[in-house]
Write a structure and sequence with these properties.
Blueprint (H helix, E strand, L loop, with lengths): L1 H17 L6 H16 L10 H18 L10 H19 L6 E7 L6 E7 H16 L19
């Protein structure tokens, strides 16, 4: 349990600092290689994972390796590639921590009323909560109507 928390913390720090310091890309590559090597060994510290979890982690790591191939600085990546790198690192972290709800996911979305794109990040639990809240809100009538009961939209008797 402590190993899992420590590894998740380290991955978070590396994910955060990757965007603050370009020299961390080598550390990201190295750490991902170490995680891959240890998870491929039948007696490694990642033996507790189901095959599906490992496949999910390997796919995220493959995206990381592909994005960082031939890249020395974060600034060499396009904004959408930086976001993809962050999301892939977060996915590896979520698998290792076995806590998908705390996985941060960032997306480029158009800002309402403009063509400008902004990066919006939220955990999967936050996104689910917003989605469910939207469904609840959508279920409420937003236009008042008279239902033949003699009460107007303000709740007053007619």
């Amino acid at each position: 349990m402590t190993n899992r928390i420590l590894t998740a913390t380290v991955l978070s720090m590396i994910a955060f600092s990757a965007f603050a310091n370009a020299g961390k890309l080598a550390a990201i590559r190295q750490q991902q290689r170490e995680i891959r090597e240890q998870s491929e060994v039948a007696t490694g510290k990642y033996v507790r994972f189901e095959r599906a979890e490992l496949v999910r982690m390997y796919r995220a790591q493959d995206r990381i390796f592909k994005l960082l191939d031939g890249v020395d600085e974060v600034e060499q990546l396009a904004p959408n590639q930086r976001t993809e790198l962050f999301n892939a690192i977060e996915e590896v972290k979520a698998v290792i921590a076995q806590n998908e709800d705390d996985q941060q996911v960032c997306r480029h979305e158009r800002k309402l009323g403009t063509t400008m794109k902004v990066t919006v990040c939220a955990t999967l639990a936050e996104r689910r909560s917003l989605r469910e809240g939207g469904r609840d809100w959508k279920g409420e009538p937003s236009i008042c109507s008279s239902r033949g009961n003699g009460i107007d939209c303000g709740g007053n008797a007619r």
